[in-house]
Q: What sequence folds into this?
């Protein structure tokens, strides 16, 4: 076992010159996030809740379905990142006022499912939102999520933060998924 206290910096070190980001993480629900979205749209009818530096909608139908199935199974679906700052009236676009700068694919997929835009496939059969039980529908609508609120004042700093949180990680290969599936007990 490693000793966490064995390795520590010298008190004389200058350290790194890194800007700390103020973030607060809250437990919430999809419904609450959706209400924030609708409020934003009402207050800024010409604005965009998704900043232009984000990629477009890239999720496949299968990815959207897997998200909804994860929710129906009660699995965590990752945090949604909102920045609370300001809106540029002159340019008519979101700069920092409750912009959802990470979670666009998930937010859009959930919204599309709840508005009947696509079905999920279970055991070869398609199910739309209207095929769910009332409780299943309510569970998705009120699904517990985490929202990370940041308070970044500078547009370029927000872009740097977005890149930082999205650049890491390695996507699983089909072989790695198959390896996991092969470990299932028969």
A:
């Amino acid at each position: 076992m490693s000793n966490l206290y064995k390795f520590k910096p010298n008190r004389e070190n200058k350290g790194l010159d890194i800007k700390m980001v103020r973030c607060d993480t809250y437990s919430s629900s999809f419904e609450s996030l959706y209400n924030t979205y609708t409020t934003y749209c009402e207050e800024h009818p010409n604005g965009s809740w998704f900043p232009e530096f984000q990629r477009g909608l890239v999720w496949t139908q299968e990815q959207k379905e897997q998200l909804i199935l994860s929710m129906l199974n009660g699995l965590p679906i990752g945090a949604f990142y909102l920045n609370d700052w300001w809106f540029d009236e002159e340019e008519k676009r979101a700069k920092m006022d409750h912009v959802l700068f990470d979670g666009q694919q998930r937010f859009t997929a959930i919204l599309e499912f709840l508005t009947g835009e696509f079905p999920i496939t279970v055991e070869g059969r398609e199910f739309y939102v209207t095929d769910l039980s009332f409780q299943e529908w309510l569970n998705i609508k009120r699904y517990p999520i985490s929202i990370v609120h940041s308070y970044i004042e500078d547009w370029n700093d927000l872009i740097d933060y977005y890149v930082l949180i999205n650049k890491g990680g390695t996507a699983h290969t089909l072989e790695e998924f198959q390896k996991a599936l092969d470990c299932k007990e028969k």
The mean pLDDT is 86.
